[in-house]
Amino acid sequence: MLKLYGSTTSPYVRRIRIWLANTQHEFINLQVFSEQDRELLMIKNPTMKIPMLEDDVDGATQIIYDSRVIYRYLTEKFADPALTWEQENQLTLIDSANDSLVQMFILSNSDIQADEDKLFFKLQKERVNAVLVQLDAYVASGKFSSWNYPTVCLYSLIDWIEFRKLHNMQGLTNLLEFHDENSQRIEVTATDPR
Ligand SMILES: N[C@@H](CCC(=O)N[C@@H](CS)C(=O)NCC(=O)O)C(=O)O
User: Fold this and answer.
1) Does the structural domain 85-189 have CATH classification 2.120.10.30?
2) What CATH number is given for 2-77 in this structure?
3) In whole angstroms, how far apart are CA 80 and each of 3, 26, 71, 74?
């Protein structure tokens, strides 16, 4: 059986959990900062990042790192169509804002203040702002109106931003509406970290 390793709060893990909602799998909920789970991660996945997927292929264990590669693995396994280049770019936008927010979240949990005069924070904030404005416009033009993988990734990002209060979403009305419209989906409520 497919085994998905992750945590309930990670937006990168949640996208795969939502995507696998109708596929039989086991979810292994890791405490990524606990010593025991870090050891497990170290052995199976030296990137020390989640999600990670494990599958049995002809009796051998196949491990796949990184949500993007996990998605590609699943599309091949279940013979689903590949993403279009436009969707790949949408994913890159979502991932770039997500990565910047993860880095700033880890810094804030390390008691490092987000000082906007410092280059690191300036770069991340510029990126997050620019990407969210672009995604807001994409939502307005109907690019995220069907529930496909990029849409699931966008939902997971926006819901995580709201959950952790990572960004002032005022003015990004299309993204807020998009979040509202999808919040009652069964696979969304079933994976809500709150
Ligand atoms: N590119 C990776 C990013 C995954 C990622 O950043 N996961 C976070 C949790 S949201 C993580 O494991 N961070 C641990 C760390 O940075 O040490 C993917 O798409 O799976």
Assistant:
1) no
2) 3.40.30.10
3) 19, 21, 10, 8
pTM of the shown model: 0.97
Strand partners, 3: 26, 54
Largest interatomic CA distance in the chain: 54
Same fold yes or no, 2-77 and 85-189: no
**Residue pair 159/11 in contact by the 8 Å Cβ criterion:** yes
Run of H or E including 28: strand 25-29
Find out whether the beta carbon of 51 lies less than 6 Å from any atom of ligand 1. yes
Encoding tokens for residue 151?
A: 């849409």
pLDDT digits (tens, 9 = 90+) for 126-151: 999 999 999 999 999 999 999 999 99
Domain residue extents for the chain: 2-77, 85-189
CA of 62 to the centre of ligand 1 (A): 20
| Residue 183 tokens, joined | 């919040």
Best of 28, 69, 102, 166 for a ligand 1 pocket test (most atoms within 8 Å of beta carbon) = 102
Which residue is listed with tokens 């770039």?
Answer: 96
